[in-house]
Amino acid sequence: MSITIGIVSQKGGVGKSTIARLVAREYAAAGWNVKIADLDIQQGTSFNWQARRLRRAQEPAVPVERFGTVAQALKIAPQYDLFVLDGPPHATMGTLHIAEASQLVILPTGLALDDLEPGILLAHELVRKGIPANRLVFVFTRAGDSIAEEDEAKAYIRQAGYRFVDTALPEKVAYRRASDEGLALTETRFTSLNAKADAVAQSLIDIITAQQQEEEAA
Ligand SMILES: Nc1ncnc2c1ncn2[C@@H]1O[C@H](COP(=O)(O)OP(=O)(O)OP(=O)(O)O)[C@@H](O)[C@H]1O
Ligand SMILES: [Mg+2]
């Protein structure tokens, strides 16, 4: 059994690579054979992150490989239990390809309308091109400390007909520092931040597991 998930967004810098590494790290820790396909050959963010992780010999290892196209990446996907497509900065032709190949498509987003609107437009576009809406899930990244803002963002996504992970990831220097050190969001020095990231990862894992069970039953 091999599962492919994709992380995409309309806007750049919303936390795609961060979420890709978080999910891959949790599955790797559970003993799964995972691989992140870094599709951003210009920046190679996840690839460089892996190099920092390797230098500090951080366990579990989270292998990352760079690919110029989604098609090239997908050739090796069946070799892994979990294959994570870390999408390019902006939605491109490749975005639909990522979504078509993924059992679950994760759309990280900030909470401002400036972030939410393009995210919803991308989701609508994917659905219009044949991706089932229940295969999409939004994750709030870089949240502030306003509960009202968070509630409004959730209502916005709910009204648009999509689901989201209930726990929002706060914008924290410690998360950024962790990434700088080749660590995932569950590996910061702060237990409360690790727990929050773990809650997000666990929600995604639960969705992936349920999705998988549905597919096997079908
Ligand atoms: N919750 C957070 N708190 C603080 N910093 C964050 C958080 N999430 C992401 N970042 C930082 O924001 C920057 C962008 O994140 P990331 O690289 O994951 O986004 P991306 O969507 O993959 O970007 P790109 O579109 O360039 O591929 C990184 O420096 C990352 O460390
Ligand atoms: Mg990225």
TrEMBL record:
Domain CobQ/CobB/MinD/ParA nucleotide binding intervals: 5-183
InterPro entries tied to this protein: CobQ/CobB/MinD/ParA_Nub-bd_dom, DNA_Partitioning_ATPase, P-loop_NTPase
Organism domain of life: Bacteria
Name the record gives this protein: Phosphonate ABC transporter ATPase
Organism this protein belongs to: Thalassospira marina
